[in-house]
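Hi V.,

Quick status before I head out on leave. The structure for the redesign project is tokenized and pasted below; the design run finished overnight.
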């Protein structure tokens, strides 16, 4: 069913109403448009309060009691902020400029050319409809993301169906925690069209959450562009660290595919950074029945979050603690260094998990020299970088050595 566009015309000239109704008689007869009229700004505001919102306001500037510029300001204060077209004489270009700066969508000059008037009305109503569709798409994307932040993986749903909320009662568990974040995402979306943002979020989150669920993880929370994931809770998993590493590698590969797809559309999406840590944490449904929040507490979680952030300085995309590797023997990984994380005094040995086929022999040899404070470490890392210029971690250590640093203990801000 076609929606009737409701237009408020504000003008103190007595013949305006008759001319408008005559010009748009067909659209009025077919129910495409309806018009209401007011002689000044005061009457226009009274009409809006009495009869409700309109799709478009067309207003003259020079009117008694309340002029069009004052009316425009009052309209901008309303929650609905109706789209406004200003009507003015040729000599009022200063007023027209002022009106446009205050939020007017377009302007018409007097004496009115009704062909131009009809074209402007049609174009403005099309703009109004497009803006409404864009807002609805954005709201839909926000609702989808809000729902995603409360959505549990299928294993949680099955647990609830079988045992009810008792299955999610607080308990200490040995688990692996994953934090992810997209580099530079906040700056990227500041000027992004809502429709593009909705497609990007649906593309990215649809893929990464599917990967999490495929590996038996639980999405505990979505925080903007970041994920907080648990492996080993609420259901016990002996291999939670293995699952987490496999998930991180699959997520990394998918995220790079997403980056390439969006680069083809002219959008430069940052790398996804991932932090992994294993240990004991208090896990359960904490909060109130109205605010269901399945999450975990403890130092294990804090470390995972800091490891995700450490990737930025290291140049890595995945950073896993020694506690993860200890629970996942046989995983291909290379040592990053002993990281002294923010707020901690004891260094933590961390690794970069890699795909099974990745050759880490040359890097390991160079790292061994670095650990022994062997001066030959500089040449060894230079050779690794020469062979693999895109190796960010090797480049990181080479820069340290060139700057006079040595050893494998790294202070993270």
């Amino acid at each position: 069913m076609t929606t009737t566009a409701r237009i408020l015309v504000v003008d103190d000239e007595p013949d305006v109403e008759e001319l408008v109704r005559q010009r748009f008689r067909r659209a009025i007869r077919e129910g495409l448009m309806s018009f209401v009229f007011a002689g000044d700004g005061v009457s226009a505001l009274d009409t809006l309060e009495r009869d409700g919102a309109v799709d478009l306001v067309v207003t003259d500037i020079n009117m008694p009691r309340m002029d069009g510029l004052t009316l425009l300001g009052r309209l901008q204060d309303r929650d609905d902020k109706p789209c406004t077209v200003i009507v003015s004489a040729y000599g009022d270009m200063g007023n027209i400029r002022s009106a446009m700066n205050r939020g007017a969508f377009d302007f018409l000059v007097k004496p009115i050319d009704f062909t131009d008037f009809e074209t402007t009305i049609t174009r403005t109503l099309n703009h109004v409809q497009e803006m409404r569709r864009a807002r609805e798409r954005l709201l839909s994307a926000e609702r989808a993301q809000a729902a995603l932040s409360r959505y549990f993986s299928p294993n949680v749903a099955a647990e609830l169906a079988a045992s009810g909320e008792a299955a999610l009662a607080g308990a200490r568990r040995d688990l692996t925690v994953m934090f992810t974040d997209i580099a530079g995402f906040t700056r990227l979306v500041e000027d992004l069209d809502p429709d593009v943002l909705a497609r990007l979020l649906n593309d990215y989150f649809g893929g990464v959450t599917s990967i999490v669920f495929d590996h038996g993880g639980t999405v505990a929370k979505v925080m903007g562009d970041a994920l907080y994931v648990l492996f080993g809770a609420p259901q016990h998993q002996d291999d939670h660290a293995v699952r987490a590493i496999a998930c991180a590698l699959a997520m990394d590969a998918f995220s790079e595919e997403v980056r390439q797809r969006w680069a083809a559309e002219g959008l430069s999406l940052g790398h996804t950074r991932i932090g992994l840590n294993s240990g004991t944490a208090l896990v359960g449904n904490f909060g109130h029945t109205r605010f269901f929040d399945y999450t975990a507490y403890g130092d294990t979680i804090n470390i995972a979050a800091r490891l995700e952030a450490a990737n930025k300085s290291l140049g890595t995309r995945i950073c896993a603690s020694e506690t993860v590797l200890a629970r996942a023997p046989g995983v291909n990984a290379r040592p990053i260094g002993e990281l002294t994380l923010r707020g901690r005094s004891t260094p933590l040995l961390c690794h970069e998990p890699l795909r099974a086929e990745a050759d880490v022999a040359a890097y390991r040899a160079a790292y061994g020299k670095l650990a022994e404070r062997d001066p030959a470490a500089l040449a060894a890392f230079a050779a690794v970088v020469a062979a693999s210029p895109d190796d960010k971690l090797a480049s990181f250590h080479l820069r340290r050595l060139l700057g006079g640093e040595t050893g494998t203990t790294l202070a993270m801000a």
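Above is the designed sequence. Residues 333 and 354 are 5 Å apart (CA to CA).

G. will cover questions while I'm gone.

Best,
W.
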